Amino acid sequence: MLAIFNKGLVKPPQELNSPASLASSRKPKLPQEILKDFESSNPSNSFSISFGDVASLAYIPPQNPYSIHQRLFCGLNDIYCIFLGSLNNLCSLNRQYGLSKGTNEAMFVIEAYRTLRDRGPYPAHQVLKDLEGTFGFVVYDTKAGHVFAALGANEGVGLFWGIAGDGSVVISDNLEVIKGSCAKSLHHFHLGACSIANKG
């Protein structure tokens, strides 16, 4: 998966502004180039959606659809989610939120995010503490200009982030994508961390 957010939408964390990246002979790529490279790695099976120059989301479905480590993409009511991994307690979470049995992890995360946004104030960790499993996700709310990204405490899923050539934040589960795109301005996404950013 790949998510790119303009620096006006998401402020890069200090840890990504590495002095080593300034001294690197390799220059970070621009978002359009990063997205093009990602899509060309699997041209017959990749999917991407862009929101002007503000954000881009890209996704490649898993080779094995029955893998316990799923890759899911969902868009509902101008909210988009890329979900990696699985939730062990999805059935009970769906009951708790009043959702149907057919609701998958990406759909659930969107509903949990909407609850956090609309019925708050709930701190983000309040929603995350109820999630059991191996997971990482990125949510982009196009209307509110929010980005919500998180990684479960179980180390079965890895997320990495870096800074593109124009200062945009790049998030991917593929370390090679980040290394090839962001020069030395990259870092592991912190376990259990979450990020909410607002453009306004």
TrEMBL record:
What name appears for this protein in its UniProt entry? DUF3700 domain-containing protein
Which superkingdom does the taxonomy of this entry point to? Eukaryota
Q: Which PANTHER family match?
A: ALUMINUM INDUCED PROTEIN WITH YGL AND LRDR MOTIFS, STEM-SPECIFIC PROTEIN TSJT1-LIKE
* Annotated InterPro entries: DUF3700, Ntn_hydrolases_N, TSJT1-like
Instruction: Spell out the SMART domains in the cross-references.
Output: DUF3700
Residue ranges of the DUF3700 domain? 2-200
Organism expressing this protein natively: Hevea brasiliensis (Para rubber tree)
